[in-house]
Amino acid sequence: MNSVKTILAVLRNYLIFLVYLIFILSSCTKYVEYVPVVLIVERGDHKLIEYPNLITTDHIEAIKIILEKYDEQYKMKNGKLYILQTLQNDKDLLQNYTSKAEVFRKNNNKN
After folding, report:
1. pLDDT, tens digit, 9 for 90 and up, residues 47-76
2. CB atoms within 10 A of CB 111
3. At 111, is the pLDDT very low, low, confident or very high (cuts 50, 70, 90)?
């Protein structure tokens, strides 16, 4: 009887672990609408803020090129760009990509 309780306890722990793992993996693959992040310097403080006004057709095309260059996953739906939630939450990395996309866009508009 004691061994049955032990087996049930082990199975319960594995089930909890599997549910937790599925939850973590599903949250990593969730797509959210892309919102550009920019660096603002105010009174010596550096702040990363979301800046949706930056979204234009040219910016979307540029950010898609940058995302592809760095093997980041994205989807287009109804003219909107969706990226992985984990990327949208990484403000430093997203600011870097946003900045690169803007440099790329400005360089291509000169031609």
Report:
1. 999 999 999 999 999 999 999 999 999 999
2. 4
3. low
Tell me, what's the pLDDT at 102? 94
Q: Are strands 45-50 and 37-42 parallel, antiparallel or unpaired?
A: antiparallel
Q: Are 90 and 30 in contact (CB under 8 A)?
A: no
The single-letter code of the amino acid at 88 is Q
Confidence of residue 103 (pLDDT cuts 50, 70, 90): very high
- Helices of type H across 29-83: 57-69
Phi, psi of 71 (to 5 degrees): 55, 40
The residues near 94 (Cβ < 8 Å, ≥ 6 apart) are 36, 37, 87, 88
Which two tokens mark 37? 């992040």
Rounded Cα gap, residues 99 and 101, in angstroms: 5
Residue whose structure tokens are 């403080």: 45
Residues 6 or more apart in contact with residue 54 via CB below 8 angstroms: 36, 38, 98, 102
Q: What is residue 104's predicted lDDT score, i.e. its pLDDT?
A: 94
